[in-house]
């Protein structure tokens, strides 16, 4: 603006901006590490250079279930189509070997002197239609078996057995893909962020988990693992080092009653990998906390598992989850719009080790928080009083009827005195 008005030369402005940009420290973002578990629970892992591919064919049923839906539907269609074509070729060969394809036999067939293996099968198309009728048991009535060819009876029995096997395998595969356990895990949700706050005088790592369905998860349990890159004293580098951390549960068993959203708590103590991490060190840590929820689906009895993970950028220090369960007209209502909402609370910025060594840090933090809360209440009350006084003064100025009139008093000597009341 000043350069446009020619108060400061434009060359000087550009030079000053360039100098300021050079003086500013340039902070380069740390390369973001790939997650081991995605937020939706998918494993971020690619299998490469697998030489023993034949092991997948040894367990063909699991391989079919693990395939994508488009591949499964293609295999489902091709398995029936190929079986129909294969047995159509066999029926055509049986009819050709018996002489049913010879046009001269048609006149003898009408005079009941010639009995074909299969009636009305005189081309590959009719053999293909008969193959479909046999395998899917349609039976239109135009083509049927006779007692003339034992080989045809054998082919009929073989086709029925093969058709039953194909039906059992493919239908079972589609049923298992439809009722897979991870489908139920789609309605098990986790909070987008985790928090670290003080609970019962201890620093705790907390996150929220909930179930959107009314059908419950039986014997649900929660496990937490820390995955990070470590180096052993011998110099061995472990890229994915998994460490189990305990979950604070007042029940002796590790099961939870997931009837409503719960806040899962992990107390950061000496056993925790987070024991030496402070608020300043958290952003520099290259770790990932994996949360695994397991249980049995009440309606199907299938074991399901839901997973998610939290990296350092998704952990809020000094926050707490807001309550979302309220009692309304005798019913407990859950407001899922506030499922991941947090509120800032007082929490020491030091690590749990420093907090155990100096318990006074927690007391000082709580006292400062109480003083700041009281000061904010005082400021709020004073602002309310000032606003009320200003409002009353403005009302007196705008409304002349509220102004008190002047009253005159007459003394016995006849002098008049005026006063305002």
UniProtKB/TrEMBL annotation:
All residue ranges annotated as the Inward rectifier potassium channel C-terminal domain in the record: 188-358
A cellular-component GO term for this protein: monoatomic ion channel complex
GO molecular-function terms, A-Z: ATP-activated inward rectifier potassium channel activity
Cellular location(s): Membrane
Keywords: Ion channel, Ion transport, Membrane, Phosphoprotein, Potassium, Potassium transport, Transmembrane, Transmembrane helix, Transport, Voltage-gated channel
Highest taxon in the source lineage: Eukaryota
Topological type in the membrane: Multi-pass membrane protein
Catalysed reaction, written as an equation: K(+)(in) = K(+)(out)
Low complexity bias: start-end ranges: 384-397
Residues under site feature: Role in the control of polyamine-mediated channel gating and in the blocking by intracellular magnesium: 167
A Pfam short name: IRK
Residues covered by region (Disordered): 372-397
InterPro entries referenced in this protein's UniProt entry, alphabetically: Ig_E-set, IRK_C, K_chnl_inward-rec_Kir, K_chnl_inward-rec_Kir6.1, K_chnl_inward-rec_Kir_cyto, Kir_TM
Transmembrane segments: 73-94, 151-175
Domain Potassium channel inwardly rectifying transmembrane: 37-180
Protein name: KCNJ8 protein
Species: Ramphastos sulfuratus
């Amino acid at each position: 603006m000043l350069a446009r008005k020619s108060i400061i030369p434009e060359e000087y402005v550009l030079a000053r901006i360039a100098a300021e940009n050079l003086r500013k420290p340039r902070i380069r973002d740390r390369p973001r590490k790939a997650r081991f578990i995605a937020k939706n629970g998918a494993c971020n892992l690619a299998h490469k250079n697998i030489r023993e591919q034949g092991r997948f064919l040894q367990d063909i049923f699991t391989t079919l279930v693990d395939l994508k839906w488009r591949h499964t539907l293609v295999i489902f269609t091709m398995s029936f189509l190929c079986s129909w074509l294969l047995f159509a070729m066999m029926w055509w060969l049986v009819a050709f070997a018996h002489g049913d394809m010879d046009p001269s036999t048609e006149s003898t067939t009408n005079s009941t002197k010639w009995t074909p293996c299969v009636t009305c099968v005189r081309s590959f198309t009719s053999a293909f239609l008969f193959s479909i009728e046999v395998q899917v048991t349609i039976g239109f009535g135009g083509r049927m078996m006779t007692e003339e060819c034992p080989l045809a009876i054998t082919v009929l029995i073989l086709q029925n057995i093969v058709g039953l096997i194909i039906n059992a395998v493919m239908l079972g595969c589609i049923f298992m893909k439809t009722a897979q356990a991870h489908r139920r895990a789609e309605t098990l949700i986790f909070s987008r962020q985790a928090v670290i706050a003080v609970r019962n005088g201890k620093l705790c790592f907390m996150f929220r988990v909930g179930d959107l369905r009314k059908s419950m998860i039986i014997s649900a349990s929660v496990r937490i693992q820390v995955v990070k890159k470590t180096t052993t004293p011998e110099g061995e580098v472990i890229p994915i080092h998994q460490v189990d951390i305990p979950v604070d549960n007042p029940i002796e068993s590790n099961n939870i009653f997931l009837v409503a959203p719960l806040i899962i708590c992990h107390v950061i103590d000496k056993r925790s990998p987070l024991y030496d991490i402070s608020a300043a060190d958290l952003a520099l840590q290259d770790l990932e906390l994996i949360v695994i929820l397991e249980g049995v689906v009440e309606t199907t009895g299938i074991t399901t598992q839901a997973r998610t993970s939290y990296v350092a950028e998704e952990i809020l220090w000094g926050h707490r989850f807001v309550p979302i369960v309220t009692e309304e007209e005798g019913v407990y209502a859950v407001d899922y719009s506030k499922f991941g909402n947090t509120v800032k609370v007082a929490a020491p910025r030091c690590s749990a080790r420093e907090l155990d060594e100096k318990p006074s840090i927690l007391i000082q933090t709580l006292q400062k928080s109480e003083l700041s809360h009281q000061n904010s209440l005082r400021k709020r009350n004073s602002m309310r009083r000032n606003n009320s006084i200003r409002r009353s003064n403005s009302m007196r100025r705008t409304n002349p009827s509220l102004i008190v009139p002047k009253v005159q008093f007459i003394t016995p000597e006849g002098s008049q005195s005026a006063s305002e009341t």
